[in-house]
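Ligand-bound model needed. fe (ii) ion.
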Amino acid sequence: MYKPFEIANNIYYVGVNDRTKHLFESMWPLPHGVSYNSYIVDDEKVALIDTVDICYSDVFFKKLVSVLGDKKIDYLVVNHMEPDHSGSIELLVSRYPDIQIVGSKRSVEMLKGYYGITRNLIQMEDLQELALGNNTLQFFMTPMVHWPETMMTYVKEKKIVFSGDAFGTFGTIDGGVLDTQLRTEKYRDEMIRYYSNIVGKFGSPVQTALKKMSGVEIEIICSTHGPVWTKDGDADEVIKLYDKLSKYESDSGLVIAYGSMYGHTEELAETIACAAAESGLKDIVMHNVAKSHVSDIIRDVFKYKGLIIGSPTYNNKLYPEVESLVSSLQNRSVKNRVFGCFGGFTWSDASAKNLLAFANDMEFELIADPVVIKQGMLNDVQEAAQSLGEKMAEKLLLVRTEVVDA
Ligand SMILES: Cc1cc2nc3c(=O)[nH]c(=O)nc-3n(C[C@H](O)[C@H](O)[C@H](O)COP(=O)(O)O)c2cc1C
Ligand SMILES: [Fe+2]
Ligand SMILES: [Fe+2]
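Prediction:
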């Protein structure tokens, strides 16, 4: 029997924990699982906010019944149509055939496209309201956070926002639902990994949404993944984090990501890292692209201002995993990074050329010329690698001093 959790007077959490799935979107590892959050506003009219992944519909329906008994649900509010939230809609409609589905124009179209639902649909315009009795829902269109149809739903009387994927994180809700019931530090890296990989491409729409919501007083943020954020807990902090990440602002650490088949490129990576450390930089994260999951590398690139990428030349191109990383960063339009690169070849170099083209495309600040090794390590290459590490460290430490002084 699932015990309903009441977030505020007559507002309940009815989401589910997924500790089974290995890969979110069949791509992103879930070492700590993920939750799909759904909420009930139990008023004269009952509104359900979003559903859950179809794999957990049985748990979900048990939770609905634990709150409502045999009371009917008047409205389903669809903030986001991605199937991790819309997956149980068809089953919901078969159980509650009179339910009216409320969403943006694009959601109404997608409900037809995904599930063939054409009746009992209510299309909401930006800022339109829906009275439930003691509570009034107001809808804020927030396109591209994370799909074009996304909106947020605000309970005016309670100052609660149902924010969709915004402010979401990987990681299940283990026991407590509210941030004040949990040790939330454990979610911070997973929140950045979630943001950077899933929403990271949409920095500008996230900024637009944040500006739009900045005029709204918010006490509680109910997102679709992870804990509920409260004013007494981390709400202000997660808003600040989203603001920072969506502006592509970062801390003054360094990510060194490299591929290496026979260790030559890796030797350069180690040399650069040691030189940066000797220059006083402590926040250095190294990733062998063949072993680290790309989502962890992307997370760290979003966290840190310095980025150095290394690759051997492979069939006249970049090493495949480096090429994949570079393309993932391009896809997310990462901005404002200080960049360096290194590479190797045996007969004709393609690594430096490709990495420079990448830096140029991203408008990164190039800290030094590429360090390129032909076959074995020579003294001048060793020196150039050391110099790259030192220059990068000096720059990042200067950035840190500027931030502290500001
Ligand atoms: C499958 C394969 C393809 C390669 N393709 C090229 C190439 O197109 N041009 C080139 O100059 N070197 C090429 N190389 C040589 C590597 O770039 C060179 O051995 C480099 O030192 C490898 O760096 P690593 O020791 O970090 O793996 C290739 C090596 C392998 C194993
Ligand atoms: Fe989504
Ligand atoms: Fe989601």
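The chain has a mean pLDDT of 97.
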